[in-house]
Description:
By secondary structure, this protein is an all-alpha fold. The protein contains 16 helices and no strands. It starts with a helix and ends with a helix. 43% of the residues are buried. The mean pLDDT is 93.
Amino acid sequence: xxEDLHERLRQLPAADAPALIALGRxxxxxxxxxxxxxxxxRAADLGDAVAAFALGNALAAQERWDEASVAxxxxxxxxxxxxxxxxGVVLDEMGDTDGALAAWRGAAEAGDSRAAxxxxxxxxxxxxxxxxxxxLRAAVAEYPPARADLADLxxxxxxxxxxxxxxxxxxxxxxxxxxxxxxxxxxxELGDDEAAEEAYxxxxxxxxxxCHHNLGVLLVGRGDQEGATEQFGLGAEAGDELAIAALRLFxx
Length: 252
């Protein structure tokens, strides 16, 4: 902690939580994360739920997940309902899927529409429950990854044309996650390999490294072994597990 912060803290009343929070936010905006953490911690120790929430955010930004989860739970106990969503994110990072879902349910019940969107996506991935269609439709506006899940549900219920429309809208809006499922839809459902290739290449340009693998598979089907190997290699360099596995098969 710098001498400047020592002096500013010394000048604050010992029990002035709002002033500590204000100083913490000022330091945070200046990129002084650990100093901001100290301010939030002092205010949280005074029983301020808003400070506990801010402390959780500061700890999460440092990937100190265990400490962040404790801070969020303290904030929730003090009535700070906004902490539900971020608690879910932290628990998910910690690998506690059930805990994360429970937190997002709490956030949704508190009126957090984004948390409700995340919850709908996670429940679809876990259950493939067709009854989630309305929830996924509502989720698309709040959480772009929901678009791929909605399209998946539409494909499962023989509505490939509508699924294509949903994904094409996402692609036009610049949602990088729409390109891979759109390419898969063109390839698997609509038999349009040229459109699939264009979608995969657009996904790569948008930063979705998973598209390298699927483009590689498409090129294998065309007999373009060199092009496929190149795509698998690019995907492997980016850390995509499917591309790594495919590259190994080609090298063996």
